[in-house]
Amino acid sequence: MKAGFIIAAIFLSYTSFALQIRVGRQESCTTITAAIAKANNGDTVLVEPGIYFEKNLVVNKSIVLKGLNYPVIDAEKKFENISVRANNVVIDGFKLQHTGVSSIVDFAAIKLYNCSRVTVINNIIEDAFFGIYSQYSNTCLIKHNTLHAIAATEQQSGNGIHCWKSDSMQIIANSITGHRDGIYFEFVTNSVIWRNQSSGNLRYGLHFMFSNDDAYISNIFENNGAGVAVMFSKGVKMFSNYFKENWGDAAYGILLKEINDSYIRGNHFERNTSAIYAEGANRILMQRNIFRNNGWAFKIQASCTDVVLEENNFIGNTFDVATNGSLVLNRFNNNYWDKYEGYDLNRDKTGDVPYRPVSMYSMITERNPPAIILFHSLIVSLMDRSEKIIPSLTPENLKDEHPLMKPLPL
Amino acid sequence: MKKILKYVVIDILRNKIVLAYTIFLLILSFSIFNLEDSSSKGILSLLNIVLIVVPMVSVLFASIYVYNSAEFLELLLSQPLRRKTIWLSVFSGLLISMVISFVAGVGIPVLLYEFSVTGFTLIISGILLTIIFIALAMLVAVKVRDKARGIGAVILLWLYFSILFDGLVLFLLFQFEDYPLEKPMVAITALNPIDLSRIMVLLKMDISAMMGYTGAVFRNFFGNATGMCISLLVLLLWIILPIWISVRMFNRKDV
Fold this sequence. Notes:
Largest sheet of chain A: 25 strands, parallel
Strand content of chain B: under 5%
Number of helices of chain B: 11
Largest sheet of chain B: none
Helix content of chain A: 10-25%
CATH class of the domain at 19-225 in chain A: Mainly Beta
Shape of chain B: globular
Structural class of chain A: mainly beta
Structural class of chain B: mainly alpha
Strand content of chain A: 35-45%
Oligomer: heterodimer
Number of strands of chain A: 38
CATH topology of the domain at 19-225 in chain A: Pectate Lyase C-like
Helix content of chain B: over 70%
Radius of gyration of chain A: 26 Å
CATH architecture of the domain at 19-225 in chain A: 3 Solenoid
């Protein structure tokens, strides 16, 4: 009872001290800039529907900026829509459009400058240069935003959600299309990217550099110009993501370049030209992923060490594994390969003869891409057969000692 | 012409070899579709059969048939008939009966299990390959009088189109590794009807491996309607040219 009174008292005191300032045509404040000038820390600015030309709206107080029924803030292709320069700001429910485009300044629809605990939620961002941009910020939440740009060239467009030198960010349930990179991380640590959908972007769905100890979970990356790139990072966790329809010679489901000590589990790779391309990747554990209908399921360069693939399903891929050298410092074990032709005499559900996932022809096309034109011809099947009996071109040690007879129920 | 055609078709259809060929194809296609877990994989296995077996059987059967009916041809030539008519009716007779057995053996299972554009492409390319290799066989038969040498030549021809040509292409690819060969490759495939039909079917199957840069070049050419028309035209040319040359040779031949 007593506790209830205290809570009620605290609640009442809050409501009585925090002011609500309304912005609209009939209200005392007709511009958001004026309302922010009037507001104190902790106040709420409610913006009524309409279109606002605020030039560059600067939020320099810890306020809640809330749009009612998506008021539009238009930057007239010259400015940044909203610049946040204070902590504990909430920006909720706006439609931001026509951000300025510049090759000197990175204009963004919402840009966070050195702030912490900022929440950007439920916004619609259209035709922006950069969408949501965070620099030197930490502990921010970016959630339920929809970003859509009509990018024509990589030079004329920015990234959807761009984080630079930030920490403890949460990027949750955003939808990003038509930007240069859907989500871009550079020097971002201890952050999570969860349940986002990044599709139809010019370059990468997710671009990840020098960012350690981050996790991305249950995202969908579909039909991006070059898929997803994860580079020069360590301690990256990738769980239950979907990588689909990334087509092109340099398009990858995931490009792993100089990645160390990471964990890739439960992801789906479907219909990509190359599902995973690994170069200089070390100490990576890949478990329970599904590779289905890809051109190349796994391209692993000889520069990788201690990459372990266990309990993955490889189904309907044109080539299961391709590599460029004979040195193998990686391990394949207990995977299911639909091309496996061995037998299981002792009925322990693993095949009795090892499976070699690198076919001779995948080595040939690795060296000479136009040779793909002979794919599925008689001579190629003959060569593959003879290679299987006496390996000469394919690395002898690249094999799965205990391939599964049946696919794993993933 | 109608009468000769009717006679030839009935003669061939009564032949046990064609019946056996039909049943063989039928059993093969049904078992492939039942064994493979997805029908698109079945199409892939069937493609290999179509590309190897169909040309071989067509070319061998047609040449043997023409050699064996040499006396019948002589008899016809003594009648007041045009040589062109005789030759073309033998060709059409062979064509009709072989196409019927191919459609019965492969076409029906494909339509039952995989009623799609890929399936249709496979059937059409199989039909065209049948006709092309009959035309080639007739060209050899008119050129080489001796039966044993003729059949040897025909086997060599089949070997060339199914294996040797691809080997040569692979050799060329590695010899000219440093040059961009994607576009010349498109032209080179036109020189082999088996390669051309294989690529037509594979591109319809949407295999992601073909989507790389090379794949994109091929797709740009073969994937759209113009490319499809051009490749069909090239395949038709592969029928018309041999048969036209063989008609000319048959006209001048001293039987």
